Each structure stands twice: as structure tokens, then as C-alpha cells.
Amino acid sequence: MNLLSIMLMMGGQNGQGGGAGSGLVMLLLIIVIFYFFMIRPQTKKQKEEKKFREMLQKGQQVLTIGGVHGKVKEVKETTVMVEIAHEVVIEIEKTAISMTAVSTKAEEKK
């Protein structure tokens, strides 16, 4: 039985239909649940991705969100020059680089 079911059962005891106070408590409970299970993890992930993109270095292997693998040749303020084949260099936005390449390669080494 989950917490929401218990709260609903408690509100209907003693012939009371539950008042405005119990409705407010339920609304606040739902807001807290949304914050801890949806909003907070998403903002944490965004901060990690921003830090990763700021720490990009020349020679690092990357994966774009489009699925292109390459090696960083040059890092600019908002863009990155990535070598995808021998002497084939493309310029992409930093936001188009995925963190998954780094975490996948780290797991393979272990």
C-alpha cells in the first residue's frame, strides 16, 4: 500500500468527508513528490552536463547527440572543432556534445 492510499483512507474516517485542510495537504504532498522525483534530478543532471562541456579539452574523445564520434581538436567559447576522420574536422556547438561517450568508455575500461 502506498502513502497516497493511506492518506486518502485517513481523510475519510469518522464520517468526515475530508475538509479543505486535507485537500491542501494532499496538494502539497504531490508538489513535494514532483520536486524530489522529477525536478531535482533533472537540474542536477543539467549542472553535470554544463560542467562537462566547460571542461572539454583538446584530444578528448566525444560523441555528438547526432551519433558522430570524434576527437576534440580545438575548443572555442561556444563551439568545438572535432576531427571525425583523418583530416576531416567539423565545428559543432558545445551543447551538441553528449556525456554518454565519456561514461561508456570509462565503463569499458573497468
Walk me through this protein's architecture.
The chain is α+β, with helices and mostly antiparallel strands. 49% of the residues lie in helices and 24% in strands. A five-stranded antiparallel β-sheet has the order 4-3-2-1-5. Strand 3 (79-85) and strand 4 form a beta hairpin. The two termini are 40 Å apart.
Topology:
Layout: H1 3-11, H2 20-54, E1 61-64, E2 69-75, E3 79-85, E4 88-93, E5 97-98, H3 100-109
Antiparallel strand pairs: 1-2, 1-5, 2-3, 3-4
Q: What keywords describe this structure?
A:
5-stranded antiparallel beta sheet, 5 strands, 110 residues, 3 helices, alpha+beta
What is the mean predicted local confidence, pLDDT?
82
**Structural class, from helix and strand content?**
alpha+beta
Major sheet description: 5 strands, antiparallel
How much β-strand is present in the residues?
15-25%
**Which descriptor suits the 3D outline?**
rod-shaped
Amount of helix: 40-55%
Distance between the termini: 40 Å
Summarize the helix and strand pattern as letters. Answer: HHEEEEEH
- Low-confidence blocks of residues: none
Q: If you compute it from the alpha carbons, what radius of gyration comes out, rounded to the nearest whole angstrom?
A: 24 Å
Total number of helices: 3
Please give the order of strands in the largest beta sheet.
4-3-2-1-5
Number of strands: 5
